[in-house]
Amino acid sequence: MEIVGRVGDDRAGDSLLIALARAGVGHAAVLRDPVVSTPIMAPSQDPDPVDDLLADVPGAAAQDIGGGPRLEPADVALGLSYLTAFGVLVVTDDAPAEVLPACVAGAAFSGAHLVVLVPADWPPPGGLPADAVVLIAPGDPTDAAFGAVVGSYAAAVDGGEDPALAFRAATRSAGWEPAEGG
Fold first, then answer.
1. pLDDT tens-digit readout, 148-178
2. Residue 164's closest CA among 136, 132, 138, 137?
3. What is the signed CA dihedral for 19, 145, 101, 23, rounded to 10 degrees?
4. Strands (E), the chain
5. Residue 68 carries which DSSP code?
6. What gap in Å lies between CA 82 and CA 171, rounded to an integer?
7. What is the pTM of this model?
8. Closest CA to 50 of 69, 71, 23
9. Residues of the chain where predicted confidence (pLDDT) is lower than 70
10. Per-domain boundaries in the chain
11. Which CATH code is given to the segment(s) 87-182?
12. DSSP letter at 86?
């Protein structure tokens, strides 16, 4: 698993990248921004795997300092060029909308399956490939079940499983059942 992103060139950014590496998440495509600080947010009260990942990040108990590094379309294109092979590209619901075309182009170039997470109050984006999966993210960003579904789905597709079968297996393993007629 690899992450494409942007963090500050500061102690919090260093600690975050070390925590990602310890969790087995590659970060060769993470850009360091010397101008903007890495945001530091208070962990939630609910158990969350992200909180466990951030446990060693200095200042993680501090308030959100906001205004962190912003991911740009060129950042995504450059970041994806560092990755030699990937079978699934997941665009998170907090990614700026203007990076989506770069994600679509990167997935098409590598032949990767595209999964786009959309905030609950946004309409599904247009211009996506026919086989792209669009998931409406829960309003609660600490919903670990949603993260588990997306993670197991992406891992299965990356492992060569048919996307439709992988999606059904991931949702059923989380106890989700399709709606009537779905």
1. 777 888 888 888 888 878 888 887 777 665 5
2. 132
3. 20
4. 2-8, 26-33, 88-91, 113-118, 133-136
5. -
6. 31
7. 0.70
8. 23
9. 41-68, 140-144, 175-182
10. 1-70, 87-182
11. 3.40.50
12. -
